[in-house]
Design goal:
heterodimer; A: about 180 residues; alpha/beta; about 15% strand; B: two-stranded parallel sheet; about 20% strand
């Protein structure tokens, strides 16, 4: 009799009822500490550093789209003041040159965007301008992808994406900023 | 009619709660995986600007963060009010950037070094001067992949 009872006791399990409570506690801890902020941003590739001055390049001025942002956060595009909201469309027109004007890029691969700012330019404005320029290129690539393959650019395979990238290359050259407006 | 009499004894079926811990554990694991424990407290003002052309940064371990902004109120007495650079969890000088990058490079595998991104978390009000200096320093150290951190703009 006594023996069988002892065996029964051996089989007794640990009460797992409180497991849920413990798990809940941990869950709440992680819920509170979690910050689901995905790191997003505008990706850029900086040019490599060299101590020598960059080689003099002879560029046809029709292929250069110069954008200046001064310390007052005003835009000067190809010598004329411009509003930020017009920048994207204007850039697109410059790159593609649909009317074949002789003061805009010959072909998209030759187009160069030259961005220059003052040290006093606010970062916010700078990023907005950069964003608009990048958006112009992204939109052009998107329309090109639709035209050639009837598909959105991001859904194309690597080879085709590369093909379009090669035809509409993003070239933003950034000059050393001028020393205006540094606080 | 006997057929419709209630079967009293058999009533009160309860929902089994035995699987509840499993469900909770599943949720728990989900949050444990998703959680990014903040490793550095930001000591500078950091209102990121808005942008639309955003790229998501994958692989958290291959990202190093550089914060630039005005020191927060409690640090202004020591560090002043002009924008400062913060590396890791402390204020730093521009000259400390190469070492900071080198430390991060050493912590990731040799093969993943080309995949390292620098995330520049710059306050919108900062002027370009310090940002340019940081960019120059990054270029000198060969860290060319840079991500200007920004918030998505609602259109």
């Amino acid at each position: 009799m006594g023996r069988t009872r002892a065996k029964d006791r051996m089989k007794a399990e640990v009460n797992a009822g409180s497991m849920a409570d413990i798990a809940f506690l941990l869950l709440i801890f992680f819920l509170v500490t979690t910050t689901i902020d995905v790191d997003k941003g505008v990706l850029v590739k900086l040019p490599p550093w060299s101590n020598e001055p960059p080689p003099e390049m002879k560029l046809n001025s029709r292929n250069v789209y110069s954008v200046l942002v001064n310390a007052n956060n005003d835009l000067l595009v190809r010598g004329e003041p411009k509003l930020l909201r017009n920048l994207r469309e204007d850039t697109k027109e410059f790159i593609m040159n649909p009317k074949k004007r002789d003061d805009m890029a010959e072909i998209p691969t030759k187009a160069i965007i030259s961005l220059k700012n003052d040290r006093g330019t606010s970062y916010e404005t700078y990023l907005e301008v950069y964003n608009e320029l990048k958006a112009a290129y992204n939109e052009l690539r998107e329309t090109e992808a639709q035209k050639r393959f009837g598909k959105s650019f991001e859904f194309l395979d690597k080879v085709r994406q590369k093909e379009i990238r090669a035809d509409i290359p993003l070239v933003i050259s950034e000059a050393e900023p001028t020393n205006f407006g540094e606080e | 009619m006997g057929k419709f009499t209630k079967k009293r004894g058999k009533a009160k079926p309860e929902v089994s709660t035995a699987s509840l811990p499993d469900i909770i554990f599943m949720l728990l694991f989900f949050f444990m995986v998703v959680t990014v424990l903040r490793d550095a407290s930001v000591k500078v003002e950091n209102n990121l600007p808005f942008a639309t052309e955003l790229t998501k940064l994958e692989k958290k371990s291959l990202v190093n963060h550089l914060f630039i902004g005005k020191p927060l109120k409690e640090y202004q007495s020591t560090y002043g009010t002009s924008p400062r650079l913060q590396l890791g969890d402390k204020f730093a000088e521009l000259s400390e950037i190469p070492l900071f990058l080198e430390k991060h490079r050493a912590s990731v595998g040799e093969n993943s070094i080309p995949g390292i991104n620098s995330s520049l978390k710059v306050d919108g009000k900062v002027t370009m001067g310090i940002v340019t200096d940081v960019k120059t320093e990054l270029r000198k150290s060969g860290q060319l992949k840079v991500n200007y951190s920004a918030k998505p703009k609602a259109e």
